[in-house]
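Expect chain and fold; thus:
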Amino acid sequence: MTNVRALWTFVILHSSFVIAAAPAFDSLFPAGGQVGARVEAQANGKGLEKGTWLGWCSDPHVVVLGGEKPNKCFLSIAKDAVPGPFLVRLYNESDASPPRIIEVGKFEEVLEKEPNDTLAELKQAEARMNVTFNGVLEKVGDVDTFPIRAQKGKRIRLELHGYALGSPMDPALRLLNDRGIEIAAGHDSHNLDPRIEFTPTADGTLFVQLFAFAHPPAADVALKGSANHVYRLTVTDEPKLVPVLTEPGKLTLPAVVIGCLSKPAAEDRYTFTAKKGDDLQISVRAQRLRSPLDATLRIEDEAGKSLQQADDADKDSLDPTLRWKAPKDGEFKLVIADRFQHGSADHLYELSVKPFAPSLTATLDTHAYRLEAGKTVEVKLTVKTNGTYTGKIKAQAAQLPAGVTAESVDVPAKGGEVKLTLKAAADVAANQAPFAVEILTSAPDAVETVTATYAIPFTEPRGDLLIMADTHPWLTVVAKK
C-alpha cells in the first residue's frame, strides 16, 4: 500500500547518538507554517534541551531539520505540500514521544509580538487579512489581540485551532471594533475551539481578541496560560466553498447526498422504496465534517410511524448510523434533524444509504512499542466487527525492519482482543520507524484490508482534534551493546 501520509522522513537533528530517556514532547511553536516555507520552531518538553533526538513527520513534504540551539528545530515545508494537518514525533535511541499535531496552511503566517493584550498596545501593528496568526497564551490571564483589515460587505471568517492541535485549552474569541466594543463572539464549535463569521458594515480595522480557560476544566474560571497553550488563528475574507446541496426528496438507492438544516427546528425528509428484507446501512456524517450539527436519524413508514431511530453512533461519535431491514415492500422516509433543534447555513451533513456489508475496525493499545535485541514485545489490538464474516480474519504486522518478525494470528469472527508478538533477532540492528498492523479477511464478501489505528494521545476529549487516529504506530528497536 502506498499512502503519502504513511511515508516517513528521518532527519538527524544532532550529530551522534547517546543513550537517553525518551524525549517528552509537550508542544511545538509555531505549530506549522505556510506551504513552501522554512519555519524555525520551539520544541518544549523534558529532554529536548540537550542530548540527541530526531524528528519524523507523517508527510514527506514536511521535513524536520536540526537547529543550532537547544529546543530548536526547523520545519521545511515543500512547495507542493498539501495544506492540512500532519503528525510530528521526536525520538531517540531509547524511545519515542507521542505524536503532536502540526498544520500546513496556504496563507501568510505571522508570529505574535508581545505586548498585545489590549488595543492600545497595537497602535503601530499592521492590520492584515488572509493570514494565520501563530501565538502562545503563555501565562495565567494572558490575552492576545490582533488587528485585521475589513471591507464593507465582505464576509470574514475567523477560525482558531488550539484544542484541535492538542493544546490544553478551552479558548474563546471576541471581535472588537476600533473603540474596543465587542461586535461578535465565539466559544465552542464542533469541539472546544471557537470560530466567528461576520460581515463588516464599513471599511476599517477590527480587532480579534482571544483567551482561554483550563482544559481539562478547573474549579475556577480564571484565564489560563502556559508555554504549551499554542494556537493558530486563521482570518480570511475569501469566499467559503459551499458544497452542492441536494434538496430533500426521492432517493434512488444506493445514494450519497449532501444536505443542510439551514433553519432552527428544521427537518429534512427523504423518501425511498424498499422491498421486504432489504438490508441497508444508513449513516449521517456531520461532526466528522466539522459541522455543528448534532444529527439524529429516524425511519418512518408511509403513515409517518417511527420504525427505528438513531442518535450517537457510539461514545466516540455524535454522528448517527444504523442497520435497518425493511419489514415489507413499500415507501419509507428518512428524517434528519438536530438534537437541539439548531440550524444554520453551517449545519451541513452527508447522508449515505447503501446495502449492508460486513465491516470491521481495529484499534491498537498504544502509539509506540520498544523491542530489545533477542526479545519480544506484544502488540495488543481490539477488533470490532459489524456483521458476520463467513471466512477467516487474520491480523499481521507489516513494514517491519530487518531482523524483526511476527507471525500472523487469527481473529475471532465476532471480533475481540488479539495479540501479535514482535520478535527481534539477537543481532538485530538499532532502528526507529513506524510500522503497521493489518487485518486481512478471506471471505468473498469481505471488506478490503483494514489497517489498525491508535488514538492520538489526549486527555478528556471534548470534540475532534484535527487528527483523531493514525495508522502507523512507532517501533523502537534496541540493539545489543
Summary: The chain is about 0% helix and 45% strand.
